[in-house]
Amino acid sequence: MDPAQLADASRLRTRATVLHADADSFFAAVEQRDKPSLRGRPVLVGGTGPRGVVSTASYEARRAGARSAMSMSRARRLTPAAAVLFPRFEAYSAYSRLIMATLGTLSELVEPLSIDEAFVDLEAGPFADDPAAAATDVRARIRELTGLAVSIGVGRTKLVAKLASDAGKPDGLLVVEPADEDDFLLPLPVRAVPGIGPATAAALERLDVRTVADLRRQPLDILTMTVGESSGVNLFRLARGIDPRPVAPSGERKSVGAERTFAQDIFGTDLIAAAVDRVTDEALRRLTAHGGGARTVVAKVRFADFTTLTRSVTLPQPTAEPAELRAAAHQAARAAGISDSVRLLGVSFHNLSAHAQLTLPWGTEEFDPAVVDEPTDGPVVLGLLSEENARPGLDIEHDTLGRGWVVHVRGRQATVRFEGVDTPPARSQVLDLDADPLRLVPPLAPTTDA
Fold it and tell me: 106-115 pLDDT, tens per residue?
């Protein structure tokens, strides 16, 4: 491919009309919104067991060095005063729906990327001539409706819009006009470019490539020899701000799945098979929520030494049959050659199809299909609160004291706070569960009159 043709490729747009919105520290921000006593305090959301992983760290926790994907034990050492909470995906989904609906007032072309971020094509709405005003207005309306901060970037391409929203965090707005793209892009570290992970960054480091400006100076043939044909061409384009991808709201999810990190490594055929069944059950429920079926089943296995393998099984045609998908999950797990202690197991469904038909009734429990790889410590069963089903941060209700949330449970003693979005911060109370039974309840959906 001619490098000149790549460098001169049409950028399609002549003005900054692609908007990227990203809710700041989303899970932790929702928890701080719903729990007044946590506002301004460090919060860690994720697996709460000894092998848990941080899903989201509040900005107060980040300042101490905690971050997502870090082991919860390490994050706790860095932020010993942090509140550690189990994820409440039902609450996050409710806030997400409000955010996405508000973004939808800007344009009919909204492309959700995950539960907390989306692209918006302002050219398809009434705000193409004043993207800064549109972004300012929608940020204010999201804050009014949800109480949450959303960072927004606007640019001529998805690449620039995404990098601009990252640069504006937290709670910021940055519009990068086409004439200012090079001034914005070239000083950025090369790791800021989407798709450049540790391995690619290490390969580029050997070429003394540390910034986007360094990357742009590399000839196309050097990049393709270093990182491969496809990646090299892509990096050559991105270094020049060339990204013709449209905002595509009809884009379907590529996968749904679940994974679990075990409190203790598991070993042995029977234990591993039972664990595959449990994780597959979770993935199947999410596939049900998504609708349709899948053709490819992927098993992810992380061993005690942190070696991680993935293996896949592709079926002749998409199916929603639980038995077929479960059998494929076991086949994929066996293909990973499990012969050592297992730290983590994951099962995900790919090549999704809306046309596969369900033939067996599945459970009615709702799961958000936008959430994959949730850091669970085991399933939560609603009902009377006990030490077995208690998780810090879950919603509870008392017959006379009202709603609150779990701090912790030891034996039959429950420490809780009775507070909510519209109440003052509450002190912790210790209740005897025999004398004062508490019920685990679903989160309250955020109201639109906030």
Answer: 999 999 888 8
Q: How many domains does the chain have?
A: 2
CA distance 426 to 195: 44
Closest CA to 184 of 168, 201, 169: 168
341 lies in a domain?
yes
For residues 257 and 164, give the distance between their C-alpha atoms in angstroms, rounded to a whole number.
30
Residue 418: domain span: 383-440
- Closest Cα partner for 85 from 25, 149, 31, 29? 31
pTM: 0.74
> Is-cis flag, bond preceding 126, omega within 30?
no
Inside any domain, residue 378: no
Please tell me whether 116 is known to bind a ligand: yes
Sheet holding 308-319, edge to edge: 255-266, 342-353, 293-303, 308-319
Asked if residue 333 and residue 266 are part of one domain, the reply reads: yes
Is 270 annotated to bind ligand?
no
State the pLDDT at residue 410: 94
Q: Look up 117 and say whether it is catalytic.
A: yes
From 31, 60, 117, 259, the catalytic residue: 117
Q: Determine the residue type at 114.
A: S
Same domain, 389 and 349: no
